[in-house]
Structures are given as structure tokens and as C-alpha cells.
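Ops channel
N.P.: pipeline sanity check, posting one input/output pair.
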């Protein structure tokens, strides 16, 4: 294992924006779908833009599911999922009605909005977090007034409250971040979230 962060290239995702932030912070990273790179990684990032079902198909066709399972579940390499990247960590998603990676006992559902004239879907724009694990290193030097940038129509519903890192309110409370052992997922886009986002990425890169 080396200290390099590997951003998984699965044919979709906000890959280059993530790499730009990591390099600006002075850390080394590589965009790759190589088994060897993933197994040697110091950290792994699953970026997030796209359709759940299509991305799972891409991961399957590229033989990346088995590679990621070995790296994350067996070798316990720290991993950060961003937006769709976090949703992929769930057991199942309504988007495409397909199974996910199963790293969290959770399901992904579409927003159940009762007042669509006020709360548009997708949820798009700046919003804040309620920290549920304030002592987590992922949230170090972040405060509840700092906003993060969201763009999503689906959100994750975990079955274990102990996995919840933060909530966010959009008509109702939804889970905006999860964390368990070496696995962290965020529904927002830290790479688009200015100072707060850079701090969160920096926290992850120091794991």
C-alpha cells in the first residue's frame, strides 16, 4: 500500500473536479480503474454523477465490484463516496431497481416531497449539516453554519442510526453523510463546496 489516493474511473462521475481539489491541497492522486492501483491505494474515492443502475452495470462490466469489495471490505482501505458514490454503497436503489455494493445496510429512495412548489426535485444548491458524530475526524474543523453544495433527486435511508454522520433538512430530514469504520459517504459535493468542502476532503486525505 502507498499513500496515493485513487479516484475510481467508472465511466461517469465528477472525476476531474475531485482531482483538481486534491492536487490543490497538495496531495497525490490518480484516476484509475486498475486492480493493481486500487489494491495499492492509500485511499479510494468513488465520485458521484450519473444513474445508479448504469453505474453499477459499468462497475460490473469493468470487473470493479470484486476489486472494490476486496480493497474496502477485506483490506479496509479508507474510502469516500461522493453523492452517487455514497448511494452506491447502499444495498439497493430505487433508481434502476438494482442492488448496490452493500457496504451499508441501507436503501436509496427518491425524495418524497409533499410541497413541490417550494421544494423542487432535484434538491439543488447550498444546504447545511447537522452533525451526528461531531467527534469524527471527517468533520474536524467544520461547523454547523458552513454550507455544502447538493445536486440530487435520491437520498439514502440507512437501517442503523449508528452509521449516520450527518442529517440535512429539505422539507424533511434526510441523511447527508454516513460513516462506518473505513467507509465514509457524503450526499453533497465537497469538491464544489469551497472552504468547507476542501476541509472535509483534507480530513479524509489525512486518514
Amino acid at each position: 500500500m502507498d499513500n496515493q489516493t485513487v479516484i475510481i474511473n467508472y465511466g461517469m462521475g465528477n472525476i476531474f473536479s475531485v482531482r483538481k481539489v486534491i492536487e490543490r491541497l497538495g496531495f497525490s492522486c490518480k484516476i484509475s480503474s486498475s486492480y493493481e492501483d486500487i489494491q495499492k491505494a492509500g485511499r479510494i474515492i468513488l465520485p458521484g454523477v450519473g444513474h445508479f443502475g448504469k453505474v453499477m452495470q459499468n462497475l460490473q462490466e469493468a470487473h470493479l465490484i470484486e476489486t472494490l469489495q476486496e480493497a474496502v471490505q477485506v483490506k479496509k482501505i479508507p474510502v469516500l463516496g461522493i453523492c452517487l458514490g455514497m448511494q452506491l454503497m447502499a444495498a439497493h436503489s430505487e433508481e434502476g431497481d438494482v442492488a448496490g455494493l452493500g457496504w451499508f445496510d441501507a436503501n436509496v429512495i427518491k425524495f418524497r416531497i409533499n410541497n413541490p412548489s417550494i421544494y423542487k426535485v432535484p434538491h439543488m444548491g447550498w444546504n447545511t449539516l447537522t452533525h451526528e458524530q461531531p467527534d469524527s475526524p471527517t468533520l474536524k474543523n467544520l461547523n454547523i453554519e458552513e454550507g455544502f453544495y447538493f445536486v440530487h433527486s435520491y437520498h439514502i435511508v440507512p437501517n442503523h442510526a449508528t452509521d449516520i454522520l450527518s442529517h440535512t433538512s429539505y422539507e424533511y430530514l434526510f441523511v447527508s453523510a454516513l460513516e462506518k469504520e473505513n467507509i465514509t459517504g457524503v450526499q453533497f459535493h465537497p469538491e464544489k463546496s469551497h472552504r468547507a468542502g476542501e476541509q472535509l476532503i483534507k480530513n479524509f486525505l489525512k486518514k
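N.P.: looks fine end to end. The chain has a mean pLDDT of 95.
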